[in-house]
User: What shape does this take?
Amino acid sequence: MGRKLLLDKAHIEGIRYYDVYRKNGGYAAAEKALKSMSADQVIEEVKKSGLRGRGGAGFPTGLKWSFLAKPEGVPRYLVCNADESEPGTFKDRYLMEFLPHLLIEGLLISSFALGANRTYIYIRGEYAWIPDILEEAIADAHKNGWLGKNIQGTGFDLDIYVQRGAGAYICGEETALIESLEGKRGNPRIKPPFPAVKGLWQCPTVVNNVETLAAVVPIINIGGDEYSKYGTGKSTGTKLISACGNLNKPGVYEIDMNISVEEFIYSDEYCGGIPNGKRLKACIPGGSSVPILPANLLLTTAKGEPRMMTYESLNDGGFATGSMMGSGGFIVLDEDQCVVRHTMSLARFYHHESCGQCSPCREGTGWMKKVLLNIENGKGKMSDIDLLWDIQRKIEGNTICPLGDAAAWPVAAAIRHFRDEFEWHVANPDEALKRNFGLAHYADPLPVVAAV
Amino acid sequence: MAEEKKLFKVKIDNIPVEVEPGTTILNAARMIGGDVVPPAMCYYSKLQGSGGKCRTCLVKVSKGSEADPRPMPKLVASCRTTVMDGMEVANITSPEVLDARKGVVEFLLLNHPLDCPVCDQAGECDLQDLSYEHGVSGTRFEFKRRTFEKEDIGEHIKLHMTRCILCYRCVFTADQLTNNRQHGILGRGDHSEISTYIKASLDQTNFIGNVIDVCPVGALTDRTARFKNRVWFLKPVDALRECHDPNCCGKTVLWMRGDEIFRVTARKDKYGEVEAFICDTCRFEKKEPQDWVIEGPRKVARYSVISQGHYVGVHKPHETVAKVMDGRQPKLLMNIHTVSEVNQPTVDLSKIEGPAHSNDFPKHNGVQ
Assistant: This one.
């Protein structure tokens, strides 16, 4: 059994409520941090733990916190990014729905470490029922002296506010989130200045993912050194993976980052394999914007080693033969799925969600969608595949925010690894409308020369 | 002796220049001038916070600074990136930059109607210049372009959203020049549009007319002047007027033909930016030569089409109709639009894909 740090008590009935949470060791970490540690000591523990941002980029959290500017007389803010909109990712929802006090405790400790007296949870509008859960938990925490003025007699003040978004993917980008929180149109800001210097209302701000902030609780509980013993290498601790697609047991799993991808998909403890005896064709290991991998490259790296569920191993080989851990939205496609259709559907999503601020993303995403729609509907040309490659190349890296990259990578990876499926779609338009390309050689043992 | 301000040494395309800290790469390049200046469609030096959106000014930073010589991993928007001491920037010497810029121009033109022949901005359009310089002649886009209905926002301004490239300049102008912004961006992605909320009129303040000058394309045009004349038939003249508005400089350009003033705009520099903003009274209401003190002809860039037409003076032909017709008034025998199969004013040419054909126009009953 894998060890759990975040979800170890998730099965306890009523853990959503303050009394049960407190009885099961809740708020012990907050007590420890506020009463016996200094803010710098907390940051030091988080640095020692090697915790990396769970929102997608995987940036070391302790380092991010140490970048926070601390000018005199200017308030600092902590913002919790609960705008979990990446298709395939639903781990934060699970955390907030079942363990709201874990998040509040994490926010309390992190705010204490950063010296923030106002903290915001920015939650996506589609999670309509979760703000009620969070607000109830915040009220309970207030009642029991864990929020408000002079928390537990330590002299530290903290208020947590829940702010709903209006359903825009782009507001998960930290500067767009800040704009939206300020009541403006959710357009990403141009960096620099970074939020650590000028964020919310031009004050230093840290924006962290829900899971990152929740993970601070076990770090304080067991200590940073102990936490870093979980996982492998630089991928320390546990990670929530939201598995979906063609799996026997889709859902949210907490993994110790030392298991292989193969174990995660096929073992009974986790996803339990692929239903109806189908074979694995492809997988997006980290949420819709990371590169898709064919089965053979997913299970083993280009060097022939088994691929592990860690930041490093998933990224092994760069984008040529690897992918990314991303936000942990693990999407599995079996042999009956069509990669072209799947790519089209992602391109449609990114087209719909582009904010329209900078030209490559605004115009390019729509163009890619239209070309892919043509290929999918049997009206494609061979030159369209090269055209798609060229469009994504001109979007990637040339935009204000990472959404441009996020829109370009899935298309690039699909063409890189599944070019023959695209070509088959173009060459056999009638057949492509009736049946799928199937598994083809995508699960053949390596070395397979990846196209492009 | 006062202590000298430390200047940053920067190299742009291997041309050294010393600039003050806090200068952007684009402005440093403008101090050098010439070909190394990256084009800018959304940046406007007079408007705070503008820039960074169109991505035409992307450059490569091949050396970050003296202290940290690492190159920047991505191309950066030169209008919003400040220089560091010892920074080395490649603009036209980097094939990567030129390639990316070509891509951006292609993206900008994807949904822009290529209706320059019927667009009032033709001849003074930044996008026209940009695509002439960096674009390709053909398009790879084989789909319908997005279109919008034309909109009158107020008495003086026409909005043709189809042509907009979403540079946000007009939004910043309204924000910073007027005390009550009435328009903004609605929607998102490529269907986002500049508009007023519930068709509000923009004529509330005296400076809103400047959105026409800052618009790089023909999306916002002057209703008092549009389609009255082509810019290259007009002669720009610097003129001055003592304006009662304290914020208006009164320094304008009159676009004249003979003694007739067709249009009044602010004075624009070589980067298409106004030197100072003017008020709506000067722009829309003062169109008589006696309102103005004329300073002399406006200098127009040599390559501009405006400088090509030497339409000096105007010789109005003598009115001969009365003499020829023995004092009778001419009668209209037919209206060409009622018999012609093409060129009907009811059909919006900008909404037709590709060149217009006779079957794009409805047939008249009985006349074939």
